[in-house]
Specification:
Protein name: Trehalose 6-phosphate phosphatase
Number of helices: 10
Structural class: alpha/beta
Shape: globular
Catalytic activity: alpha,alpha-trehalose 6-phosphate + H2O = alpha,alpha-trehalose + phosphate
Strand order of the largest sheet: 5-4-3-2-1-10-11-12
Pathway: Glycan biosynthesis; trehalose biosynthesis
Cofactor: a divalent metal cation
Order of helices and strands: HHEHEHEEHEHEEHEEHEHEEH
Family: Belongs to the trehalose phosphatase family.
């Protein structure tokens, strides 16, 4: 439970266990996206960059209280600038409405509940064909599970109340049981409580993230499926003229990294200070590096695009 996401890579290196050693191992296994920005820019030549961003641990730091995972004003400005030039989506395990209250940028796509609840920008013409009437919700998976999710939420709140620090979060289409504030000696007891509750609900599955248990319907949908759906909704399903970039820090982001690797298109970027088994091609160590990478990416895109009359890499989306 301590090394919750993704699996760490074991190393026999004789370097001491220091932050410098961790950084060295990360750069060895997962080259820095910042240090290899020129390579990423080169790969995007003549293509439309499409940006996918996890929230917790990527755009905001991991904090003790999940209700206070606020992104900085500077990060919001950088993401807003990214969305001016590239179609941009937030893909998170959080409730879509909750993450929108943190980000507060209407021009983005939001895929909440691990991609089971997707909403497009209200004025994005390419997605209007997938919207009925004036509604901007373009996809919701597993709506039949909502009553069950609400029922299990109430049971878990009651069941886990005996463990100080445990927090159950209702993300609408899934649930999160946070144990970051739980004493380590109580982790196993909390896990048993969660498993006991779920034993009565075989239609729900349990996975683990960064000091959080994730409870989702047993349907074949995840962040990777959400990425594919969003590319299709943008008209890029079979396009060779795009470069999808997905940045995330959690085990659930591996589904999206794997999709990009299997497609042989675009890059996954893992946010981590330690080396971990991953399908991502590059790494960034923390949200501050994510902010700098996004900032430099836009700067380079604008510079090279202006040099080539807007034809060098990508193109601003409508």
């Amino acid at each position: 439970m301590r090394a919750s996401s993704p699996t760490r890579i074991k190393s026999t290196a004789s370097l001491p266990e220091t932050e410098e050693r961790s950084s060295w191992i990360v750069s060895l296994h997962h080259p820095s996206a910042l240090h290899n920005l020129e390579q990423i820019i080169s790969a995007s030549r003549g293509k439309q960059i499409v940006m996918f961003l996890d929230y917790d641990g990527t755009l905001s730091p991991i904090v003790q209280d999940p209700d206070r995972a606020f992104m900085s004003r500077e990060m919001r400005e950088v993401v807003k600038d990214v969305a001016r030039y590239f179609p941009t989506a937030i893909v998170t395990g959080r409730c879509r409405d909750k993450v929108y209250s943190f980000v507060r940028l209407a021009e983005l796509y939001y895929a909440g509940s691990h991609g089971m609840d997707i909403k497009a920008p209200s004025k994005h013409s390419k997605c209007h064909r997938m919207i009925q009437g004036n509604k901007t919700v373009i996809f919701q998976a597993g709506t039949e599970f909502l009553p069950m999710i609400n029922e299990v939420y109430k049971v878990l709140v009651n069941k886990t109340s005996s463990i100080p620090g445990a927090k159950v979060e209702n993300n609408k289409f899934c649930l999160s049981v946070h144990f970051r504030c739980v004493e380590e000696k109580r982790w196993a007891a909390l896990a048993e409580q969660v498993k006991e509750v779920l034993s009565a609900y075989p239609q729900l599955k349990l996975t683990q993230g960064r000091k959080v248990f994730e409870i989702r319907p047993t349907i074949k949908w995840d962040k990777g499926k959400a990425l594919e759906f969003l590319l299709e909704s943008l008209g890029y399903a079979n396009s060779n003229d795009i470069l999808p970039v997905y940045i995330g820090d959690d085990q659930t982001d591996e589904d999206a990294f794997k999709v990009l690797r299997d497609r042989g298109q675009g890059f996954g970027i893992l946010v981590s200070k330690v080396a971990k088994k991953t399908n991502a091609a590059y790494s960034l160590q923390e949200p501050s590096e994510v902010k700098e990478f996004l900032r430099q990416l836009v700067v380079e895109w604008k510079r090279l695009s202006s040099l080539q009359g807007g034809q060098y890499i990508g193109r601003a989306h409508m």
